Amino acid sequence: MNEKISLDISHLPNHGFGPRTLTWWGTLAFMSLEGTGFVLAIGSYLFLMVLAPRWPLSSLPPDPVAGAVVMLLLLASVPLNKLLNRWAHAEDLPRVQYGLIGMCIFGILPLIARGFEFGSLRVRWDTDAYGSLVWFLLGLHTAHLLTDVADTVVLTALMFTRHARNGRRFNDVADNAFYWDFVVLTWLPIFFTLYIVPRL
Amino acid sequence: MSAPRDAALLRDTSPDLDDLRARLTAIWDTPRGLWGFLTTVDHKKIGIRYIVTAFFFLSLAGLAAMVMRTQLAGPNRHVVTPDLYDELFTMHGTTMMFLFAVPVMEGIGIYFVPLMIGTRNVAFPRLNAFSYWVYLFGGLMLWVAFLFNQGADAGWFSYVPLAGPLYGIGKRSDFWAQMITYTELSALAVAVEIITTVFKMRAPGMTLDRIPIFVWSILVMAFMILFAMPAVMVSSTMLILDRLEATHFFDVSAGGDVLLWQHLFWFFGHPEVYIIFVPGTGMVSTMLPVFVRRPTFGHLAIVVSLMATGFMSFGLWVHHMFVTGLPRLGESFFTASSMSIAVPTGVQFFCWLATIWGGKPRFDTPFLFILGFIVVFVIGGLSGVMVASVPLDTQVHDTYFVVAHLHYVLIGGAVFPLLGAIYYWFPKFTGRLLDETLGKVHFWLALISFNLAFFPMHILGLEGMPRRVYTYPSDLPWADLNLLSTIGALLFAASFLLLFVNIAVSLRSGALSGDNPWDAPTLEWAAASPPLPQNFTRIPLVTSREPLWAERRDWPVVGGLRADRRESVITRVTDAVPQMLDSSPQISIWPFIAAIASSLTLLGSIFTGWAVIGGMLPIAVALIFWFWPKGTKEDES
Question: Is the confidence at residue B257, as pLDDT, over 60?
Answer without folding.
Answer: yes
